[in-house]
Amino acid sequence: MSDNNRAKFLGYKKLKRFVVEYEPQGICLEYEQDKNEKTKELELPEINNETDLEKTTDDLSKCDKLITPSRKVDLRLILARIQVAKTNESKYAVFKEVKGHNDKVTCVAMTKNGDKMVSSSADKTCKIWDVKTGDELYTLDEHDEAVCCIALNKHGDKLATGSLDKTCKVWSTETGKCLHTLKGHKDTITCVAFNHSSSVLATGSHDNTCKLWNVQTGQEIHTLKDHTGPVVSVTFDLSGNHLITGSHDESLAVYEVKTGNRLHSLTGHQGAVCKVLLSVDGKYIVSAAMDNTCKLWDLSSTESIECIATMEIGSEITDVTFDPKGQHFAVALQDGSAKVYKTETQESVSELKGHEAEITQMVFNPQGDKLLTASKDKTVRLWNAQTGEAVQVLEGHADEVTSCTFNYIGDCIVSGSQDGSCIIWQ
User: Fold this and answer.
1) In 3-state terms, what secondary structure has residue 406?
2) CA dist., res. 55 & res. 331, Å (int)
3) What gap in Å lies between CA 75 and CA 202, rounded to an integer?
4) Is the CB of residue 133 less than 8 Å from the CB of residue 108?
5) What are the φ/ψ torsions at residue 12 (nearest 5 degrees)?
6) Residue 269 carries which DSSP code?
7) Neighbours of 373 (CB within 10 A)
8) Rounded CA gap, 362 and 384, in Å?
9) Where is 376: in which H helix or E strand?
């Protein structure tokens, strides 16, 4: 029976894609039924170095009819990636140095399956690269000023870019075509984020507003005008029903996406808020500010949001990030150090020292046991998050490193630099 006939036999169910989580390991099936997108979890056994991947692939395909014979190859590859992620302890080396930008690289990102990477630059462009070959696939050159921020949606098929030209553009990463140009902000766009379903995009701006946009149509949904300073950080919760914003007016705000109403205003910082993040379990918000403090907010009550801890860091904060489970968060500092805390107790876990200049970006690996830091000292460093021990120093850039990220397995790193280049490390 062909895949098309089989889909009809199942009541028009057709598998669209596998969505993979490496920590905790799991696979979600996204499928279409009667023109509606639905999801279901695949019951995945523990994958380790001893797992027979061929047998596991066969067993899983027998348990779920959505996995047609033509998709078994994809499933086998995903299981192999999960296996590598569980056992890979190798160090990283330069795989490819990719050049093409005429000015500094401002941001880098990788699609969830790790096949493409995106770089943005002060040269007004973004570029999409093939990670396996290092080849440039597309140059996105329709902005009139520097590209300041980027965001990929969950599937990696859409890219949002925010610019000094006051516009945000939505692109197809599969064709390199601009799908929408979002106009309405009166100043630089500083931050962008997709909700989990990729139906809504949020943009924050130096014009003190945040806007919500319909990703499919490119139409503005709401303008959120409650902040009195630049909005520099935006993040959705997993449901997509709420948006959290951080502003230089020293406050955070929580909005209902459907109505655009502000539900909570979170105050207490004595300096400009530079970043806000939501833990993956939706229990906590962490905020970092120019008052050299980091605050943790408890979301367990829908009636009020309480600040449960304030960490006096002692140096200007340059970045903050949660691990993939939300059990720990890390704070990067201007003095080149970083600190890791346990989320639930706010206990200090480790301190990372070794960079000779400011840390510009920091990210946990998918397993949550390593931290990657980019620095103005021209290096990228890999750390043991629990002990603070430096695992590896990645040297190769000729100027300050502005950004870094892992792929979703953790066996590939991408970094971008002031020298206009990106390096793929494997």
Assistant:
1) strand
2) 43
3) 33
4) no
5) 60, 30
6) -
7) 27
8) 13
9) none
Question: Quick one: CA dihedral 279, 285, 287, 293, positive or negative?
Answer: negative
SS3 content of the chain, % helix, strand, coil (to 5): 10, 50, 45
Q: Hey, what are 301's tokens?
A: 């009550």
Q: For residue 278, report the phi and psi dihedrals to the nearest 5 degrees.
A: -115, 135
Tens of pLDDT, residue by residue over 173-232, are: 999 999 999 999 999 999 999 999 999 999 999 999 999 999 999 999 999 999 999 999
* CA atoms of 273 and 209, how far apart (whole Å): 15
CA distance 202 to 183: 13
Contact (CB, 8 A) for 250 and 269: yes
Q: Which amino acid is at 416?
A: G
Contact 237, 282 (CB under 8 A): yes
| CA distance readout (Å), 70 to 32, 66, 166, 174, 236 | 17, 11, 45, 21, 35
For the stretch 38-93, pLDDT in tens is 788 888 888 887 888 889 888 888 888 888 888 888 888 778 767 765 555 558 99
Q: CA 145, CA 189: separation in Å to the nearest integer?
A: 11
